Amino acid sequence: MDAAEFRRRGREMVDYVADYLENIEQRPVYPDLEPGYLRSLIPSEAPLEPESYEDVMKDVERVIMPGITHWHSPYFFAYFPAASSYPAMLADMLCGAIGCIGFSWAASPACTELETVMLDWLGKMLQLPECFIAGTDGHGGGVIQGTASEATLISLLAARCKAIRRVQATNPEISEAEVLSKLVAYTSEQAHSSVERAALIGGVMMRKVPTDKTYAVGGHMLKQMVEEDKAAGFIPFYVTKHSGIECVCLFQFCATLGTTPSCAFDHTTELGPICNDENMWMHIDAAYAGSAFICPEFRPLLNGIEFADSFNFNPHKWLLVNFDCSAMWVKKRTDIIGAFKMEPLYLKHENQESEFESLVRADKRFEICAEVIMGLVCFRLKGSNELNQNLLKKITKSQEIHLVPCQLSGRFVLRFAICARTTESRHIQQAWRHITQLTFELLQEPSH
Amino acid sequence: MDAAEFRRRGREMVDYVADYLENIEQRPVYPDLEPGYLRSLIPSEAPLEPESYEDVMKDVERVIMPGITHWHSPYFFAYFPAASSYPAMLADMLCGAIGCIGFSWAASPACTELETVMLDWLGKMLQLPECFIAGTDGHGGGVIQGTASEATLISLLAARCKAIRRVQATNPEISEAEVLSKLVAYTSEQAHSSVERAALIGGVMMRKVPTDKTYAVGGHMLKQMVEEDKAAGFIPFYVTKHSGIECVCLFQFCATLGTTPSCAFDHTTELGPICNDENMWMHIDAAYAGSAFICPEFRPLLNGIEFADSFNFNPHKWLLVNFDCSAMWVKKRTDIIGAFKMEPLYLKHENQESEFESLVRADKRFEICAEVIMGLVCFRLKGSNELNQNLLKKITKSQEIHLVPCQLSGRFVLRFAICARTTESRHIQQAWRHITQLTFELLQEPSH
Question: What is the CATH number assigned to the segment(s) A145-340?
């Protein structure tokens, strides 16, 4: 499919999408099918010959649509809302075209920066305490996760790391495994299953705090359980809280504001001081209810947020952002970064083709550093690591091509990876001319 | 934005995307910016008044594009390729419109079934051993993860769970924490940082196996380390393998076929028998190289796959599927399912608005089961759980509206959640008429 056909098919797809959403009310909201329906409708192996675009689109109606639960039908009252809007779909089209993977600032600066600044905007709309806002010199800030389950897991792992380091700081003779076996996290018996699963993944014990008759957790019950566990030699560290919020504790508590079963709100203003006194991480999960806190009449439900270490809610539920987008804030960014930090060289700023390999081998100033099997060539200038670092600096500064390095047997090596679908022989030839020109300049400099 | 405007803006966006990709070669591949560039270009708080669509699109060129690293430029030779194609973008538009969240079969049957059948197609293209194919009665099968890092983490957690259960089956007096502290996973010193991070998250020790002069791991080195660790009282359980593959071991080994730094291939046919003999889970990560194994000339690099418990590669690298799509296969689905299984009632097949609440309260046959604060009403027929289960069955069978249940204080309760952006008062009124009609029919039945 070339650009011209994409322009045509893209217009048709825009109309298909608009037609689908304008007429969704006419489709049965829930499919009437037995498990396994789809396998019999299509071949058991991928076809060897291509099918026409028209036939593929016919299969969408014949094979896919009969098996869809229509989440955007006005007769869908199940689970929780998944937001969707036309502007969000346009934005997704643009993101798909840019198609960058923002795993570091350098991998696409706009990704990291826009995320940070937009989470500040959103945090201010929720009137989060100043300590959760990144600004230009804050210690806190926001980050986008895929789902609330991921936000809960990340907060639990950060709390676990912090608790282990704290215990080992005063008792260096205790092993990490030993500390781990003593940690207890708490959450409401009404919390989402993902909170319990986070504890399972993190390998820590999780206790469920009984709720009152409104299905919310109050301070009294948590206090009592924590006292019992401490007396038995355990280390509370994490709490999750519900109120449309779920909260975790290692010596953590995960509270929920708006539980999944009944949208109950845990009593954060009672729970928060207990967590702070006991040095327990408090995570507040308001996956569903969070969007409502932008409204002054609902904002009081978020009172107590000042005691929390982390907080999240899902714009993909009520804020017209298509799945997936869970916004998460922490008071101290270093708590999260410190728990996961690893810096392999290819991510500090990282690169085959026999064609490029032969160009490198033909130039005696260079050497190939690893066997070339697929689309990646590892090469370097014969000489010091510093010389190769300087060459990469020149390449980056010139902005014509983009490479990143790696480390092999203690040596600084350049990685040349064939990446774009549109890279042709001429681009590779030109890249090599560019690299050799910069090498010539570099070797002329008096220091070399 | 209504459907008519979406049709117009959608066409414009299709053209913007096609123009961007046709002319990407003219843009500098790597941005020339200092960290923090974006914050000064936009207001510090969200605007209170809307901006025109034209102004938003101008901001894309003014604010976003200068900060983009253009991954699809033919001059991009960094990291690894991120696939992108016009057909994949069209498919993403359609998925965005359907916007269903496929966390269970019932949440949208087509999602689960299409995924299973397509992973069978792909597995057959790779000539995976039959035990990795789901078919209609296989024990293995494929599942889509977001990234190879997730696939590695999931295989490590499944291996950990299996190892703990095996040790406890013969030694029930040993606590889970104690087993955990004795587990050792192995991977290549050249494996991706995400393998080490998976061990960090899972709270298990990971040892790095030295590579040979081609940067690959051979059987001899692994065997020696495992023997040493067993002699010291540890329990090897997981191995990851590289060859464009990464492999893990608890008593796991993670092998890599095509390492990130240099695309080295671990010696799977040597490592596999060691893992099988030692009862270690072997995970093979071929994130980058996997797509090439479809070609007969590269397929020999995958030999040894028959010894693996799990395998993954990223179609979003070379198969023209936009990010994110990492395909993962396991020999025994129960190993993965068993490690994470939780079945809260709202996911077994899971609902507010004062409007709907008042309708329920006005009917004395019904009761409200939890305080209604936001868009969720929990209600039930006064009477047995069985009666309410039967009512929900009738509602599901009728296909007019879609609800799921929850459990509150041991009682089976129906959840009515306002979900769709387009749900109006008339839809709610009609849903209630429908529920009361089915209730009337139910209460007429002789059994009640």
Answer: 3.40.640.10
